[in-house]
């Protein structure tokens, strides 16, 4: 699959990828924070994993933020919307409990990993700084996917509901970030 992007004047594909992925990491931090709040009640045994994921996502957000500053780029317009969406998704799935929390992470990470591999392919040879950041982050995103997959019933209700809804929503948010003009 080819990456499509509607770039601003003076903006490279790598700049846009960094902006969109930065916003996505902000959304992930918000999802995990809110899920952790509900997990204290609904799935206390998941708090350790959620803390671990939050630490990674904060680091990812910081890496993308540093790279944006280095490039002289502002964050994506969708940054705040990703945060608000993350709070809403985290609340709904956190309230639903363990299997919904795990299924949400699996669905999001499947979509994110697919896009990051596509981004690496598109940026290889033209933006090695962006490629290096993406390759570093993919390892931890894959870990989030695998840990969460082990914590859910793959044939249960939540994966059947959340995989298509959350997966499609994640793809849509990424596509919008890449194709709507940003500041």
The CATH topology comes to Ferritin
Shape summary? elongated
The ordered H/E elements are HHHHHH
Strand fraction: under 5%
What's the level 1 CATH class? Answer: Mainly Alpha
Number of domains: 1
Report the count of strand segments: 0
Structure report:
This protein is mostly helical. It has one domain: Ferritin, CATH 1.20.1260. It has six helices and no strands. It has helices spanning 13-42, 47-71, 79-96, 98-123, 128-150, 157-179. The longest helix is centred in the N-terminal third of the chain and has 30 residues, at 13-42. It is elongated and about 50 Å long. The mean pLDDT is 95.
Summarize this structure briefly.
By secondary structure, this protein is an all-alpha fold. The chain contains 6 helices and no strands.
Q: SSE layout and pairings?
A:
Blueprint: H1 13-42, H2 47-71, H3 79-96, H4 98-123, H5 128-150, H6 157-179
Based on the model shown, name its key terms.
183 residues, 79% helix, mainly alpha, Ferritin, 0% strand
């Amino acid at each position: 699959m080819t990456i499509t992007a509607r770039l601003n004047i003076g903006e490279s594909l790598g700049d846009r990828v960094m902006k969109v992925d930065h916003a996505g990491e902000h959304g992930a931090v918000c999802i995990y924070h809110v899920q952790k709040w509900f997990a204290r009640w609904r799935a206390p045994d998941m708090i350790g994993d959620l803390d671990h994921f939050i630490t990674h996502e904060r680091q990812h957000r910081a890496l993308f933020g540093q790279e944006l500053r280095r490039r002289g780029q502002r964050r994506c317009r969708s940054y705040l919307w990703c945060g608000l969406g993350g709070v809403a998704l985290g609340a709904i799935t956190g309230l639903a409990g363990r299997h919904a929390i795990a299924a949400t992470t699996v669905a999001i990470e499947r979509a994110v990993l697919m896009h990051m591999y596509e981004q690496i392919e598109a940026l290889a040879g033209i933006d090695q700084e962006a490629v290096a950041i993406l390759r570093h982050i993919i390892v931890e995103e894959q870990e989030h996917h695998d840990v969460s997959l082990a914590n859910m019933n793959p044939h249960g209700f939540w994966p059947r509901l959340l995989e298509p809804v959350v997966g499609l929503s994640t793809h849509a948010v990424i596509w919008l970030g890449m194709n709507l003009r940003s500041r």
